[in-house]
Amino acid sequence: MMPENLPSVGVTRLISIAVDTALVGLVCVLLFLWNGMGAWSMGLGMFVGMPLLVIALLLYVVAVARDMKRRGAL
Q: What's the predicted TM-score (pTM) here?
């Protein structure tokens, strides 16, 4: 029998994907900032990095909501 205070496998997987997506997005934004806002890094940082950070945030919110619902807090 599994203790109730442990997160489910789906929640753990969603958080893992959210962290990985956020790291990739942050690297894209970091390249944009390091390059001095050049043309190629503008596309990479702003048009790839920022949406990845938004996706990571949404995945994290979904994971937290699922975990709270499973525990009866929502």
A: 0.83
